[in-house]
Every structure is written in C-alpha cells, then in structure tokens.
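Pipeline run #58 for the internal structure catalog. This entry was flagged by the ingest filter as a single-chain record with no existing model, so it goes straight to prediction. Upstream metadata was stripped on purpose; only the residue string is passed forward. Reviewer on rotation: M.T. Logging verbosity set to normal.
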Amino acid sequence: MFEYTGVDGIMIGRGTFGNPWIFKIIKHFLETGEKLPQITNQEKLRVIKEHIKLELQEKEEITAIREMRKHIAWYTKNMPNSSEFRNNINKIENKDELIKKVEEYFLI
C-alpha cells in the first residue's frame, strides 16, 4: 500500500492478537525488504509464560488466569490440535495447572 497508494502509515489492529512480534516483522520488512523467519514455539512459550507472570502481578489469580485463557487461544491459533488444547485450558483456574498445560502443549 505504501507504493501503490502512497499512504503514510498502516493500522495493524487485530493482527496483534497473539502476535506481538508483528511490529518487529513489519519494521524489518519495511527496512530491508526481507521476511523474518517464523517465530519458534520456544519463543511463543517464553512469551506466554512472561505474559502469565505479568498478568498475575496486576490481577488476582482467578481473574488473571481467566483473562490469559483468551490470550493463549490467540497465541495458539492455527497451531496443531489448538482447538482441543483451547477446550482444555478454558476449564483451568489455577496458575500452576495452566503453566503446566501450556508447557506440555508447546513441548510436544
């Protein structure tokens, strides 16, 4: 769109859900014209665990865990068996169990 219409900027919107790397990816592409490799599952797992930790610092555990379930669903969208995984984590209300299930899913 930059070349075709001469726009000064773009809006990302929902593309950020579960994909915080999108800014780095777009910036790199605009600066170099090269696509970055896909984010690894290990990086996704690291970010999810950090996200859980930060959420728990801001909210009481039950609220944080319930909110994290939707974020984890976005992080795992289009991954293998993600529908079944989301169904399982949507019943969890304990941080240790949530972290365990996330680690199991990503370490498969």
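catalog note: The mean pLDDT is 94.
catalog note: The longest helix spans residues 41-58.
status: ready for reviewer M.T.
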